[in-house]
């Protein structure tokens, strides 16, 4: 167990460790994945019915509307609902697609994880930016970080144990 999560509840440990590892795997800013994970607030096995008849599933509240696309890869709702890092990897994969392919600024594209409908996106975007700033500070205190929104960004050094700190990508306003 990594020392920076040892005193946290198991679900929070899973959320943080899986968010960071998934962000690294899919080259997505870790603070954005952490912010989405916090914002979604799901739990393994959880199914939440939406007003449009779809469901949000698992720790990252992955919408069942996306399951049609995932089915061609053999991914089922049970896979998305399961405990562990897989749901976070799927979310980071989907976030990467939004960040690379969608229109708008970084935060609008990230908020497309929730909805492309402008009024829903705007509300989600505002909260996502606040949460991402908090997580960027948290990461910066524990990891070497690089702000991917700046072309001239240089790695920041964490306050404690900088020599042995792993690297994480972050995004700031």
TrEMBL record:
Pfam families: SLT. Residues 19-115 form the Transglycosylase SLT domain. InterPro entries: Lysozyme-like_dom_sf, Transglycosylase_SLT_dom_1. This is Transglycosylase SLT domain-containing protein. It comes from Thauera sinica.
